[in-house]
Design a protein that fits this description.
Largest sheet: 5 strands, parallel
Distance between the termini: 64 Å
Number of strands: 24
Radius of gyration: 24 Å
Helix content: 25-40%
Number of helices: 13
Strand order of the largest sheet: 5-2-1-9-20
Shape: elongated
Length: about 450
């Protein structure tokens, strides 16, 4: 077998000859999903002796934990999004493909895309995350959008701002009341953060910019089917969050399952809430990875994985992030958090890189280092929990800000977001308050 000079240089062969490992073509690693896990894995493989293909239906990485701030006019979409080609373009061994994945052929070892030829792989990494879970009531999606993309955030922002404008002009008290009522379904971090942000949006916006409506007419209702909000946190922190929301004027209704959602209203706990703005934040489920692989899904649609994040029974397939049902040393599933996905992606990228260079498989399982969980309720109000450490108020709020800034993809985004936060904090102004004209 002969090898060209270019191939010889690509594999870094010395004058003493080529080993069998260097004679083979570079391994093809396909990563589906450019979120926290996929991007961390790709970055760890940058410059390695492998060919990496990143496939995502969007052309950008999105910082989902701050989407609620886009929805409430604090940040613009560009502040929390970064083109994947810009992030990964410096690595010559990484190719970015914008495509909608519809399936996986595990026999042929190829990713099936909606448009274009199948993308063949030697190793497949799936990092497609999660989507909104309407628990079998998918017709509710039309009236209660979730918050998983920039498009969702812009839709909610436009709806909120447009309803303020409609309320300003409304002569009918019932119409004005419905325009100024927002119902958020789900008492997890997304719902809590949205409720607090909408309350502050109205409190700072209405008195200054509107003449015919009053802040007293603003109504925000947070519905939760469970006995309390923020169930993943210590009860003392959850209680603090609920009391803080109520001080901001948010009606927190626990033990109130939703029964119906339709145009103009929500029925929950036997009560009807007339509203023109309903937002879904009641749960998520994994993207259809189990269906793609022909496997039985676990809890939340997630696919069970081994300690090294590989899929049992399927050669060279790994899953990271929200789509993976990975267990810790105590047999408990890792939570669907950005820090988990990022650490899993970095672990897997380093593992695949090491295996390529050393030609031996690493048996060291993934271990999660919990940096703490946090949720913000509003200005100077947040909760933070890390083991026995439990913080509330301004200190937790600063920690929340630091954690989220550090998780952003690069220095530019950290600077932009920090600057906009400081401007909003001191001026109480929301600059991303744009409503597009209707055609």
């Amino acid at each position: 077998m002969m090898i060209s000079k270019t191939e010889n240089e690509d594999f870094g062969a010395g004058e003493g000859g080529l080993s069998g490992a260097l004679l083979q073509r570079p391994r093809r690693i396909v990563i589906v999903g450019g979120g926290f896990g996929g991007l961390a894995c790709a970055s760890a493989l940058g410059g390695a002796k492998v060919n990496v293909t990143m496939v995502d239906r969007r052309n950008h990485n999105l910082f989902q934990p701050l989407l609620y701030q886009v929805a409430t006019a604090i940040l613009s979409p560009a502040s929390i999004s970064e083109p994947l080609r810009r992030t990964l373009g410096r690595h010559n061994n990484i190719h970015v493909v914008m495509a909608e994945v519809t399936g996986i052929d595990t026999v042929r070892k190829a990713v099936i895309a909606e448009d274009g030829a199948p993308i063949e792989y030697d190793t497949l990494v799936i990092a497609t995350g999660s989507k909104d879970n309407y628990f079998g009531n998918d017709t509710w999606r039309e009236f209660a959008p979730g918050l998983k993309s920039n498009r969702d955030a812009r839709l909610i922002r436009e709806r909120l701002l447009t309803l303020f404008e409609r309320a300003e002009l409304a002569e009918n008290p019932e119409e004005r009341r419905a325009c100024l009522t927002s119902v958020i379904i789900g008492g997890g971090p997304t719902g809590v953060e949205l409720a607090g942000a909408i309350a502050e949006l109205g409190r700072f916006l209405i008195p200054r910019d509107f003449k015919n409506i009053s802040i007293d007419e603003l109504r925000i209702v947070l519905l939760e089917a469970a006995p309390g909000i923020l169930s993943g946190f210590d009860k003392s922190l959850s209680d603090y969050a609920q009391k803080t929301l109520e001080k901001k004027g948010v009606e927190v209704r626990v033990n109130t399952p939703v029964e119906a959602i339709e145009d103009g209203g929500v029925t929950a706990g036997g009560e009807r809430f007339e509203t023109c703005c309903t937002i879904w934040g009641a749960g998520v489920k994994a993207t259809p990875v189990a269906e793609w692989l022909g496997l039985e899904a676990g809890r939340g649609g997630r696919v069970p994985v081994e300690g090294d994040l590989s899929v049992k029974g399927l050669s060279d397939i790994y899953i990271v992030g929200d789509a993976a049902l990975a267990l810790d040393e105590n047999g408990k599933p890792f939570p669907a958090l950005a820090q988990v996905a990022k650490q899993q992606g970095r672990y897997l990228g380093k593992k695949l890189r090491a295996e390529r260079h050393s030609r031996s498989r690493s048996d060291e399982p993934f271990r999660f280092k919990n940096r703490g969980i946090t949720a913000v309720i509003g200005r100077n109000a947040a909760i933070f929990e890390a083991g026995r450490l439990k913080l509330t108020g301004r200190t937790a709020w600063f920690l929340w800000a630091i954690v989220h800034v550090l998780l952003l993809v690069n220095f530019e985004k950290r600077f932009l977001v920090s600057t906009q936060w400081m401007w909003t904090f001191f001026t109480k102004q929301r600059n991303a308050r744009l409503i597009d004209e209707r055609s």
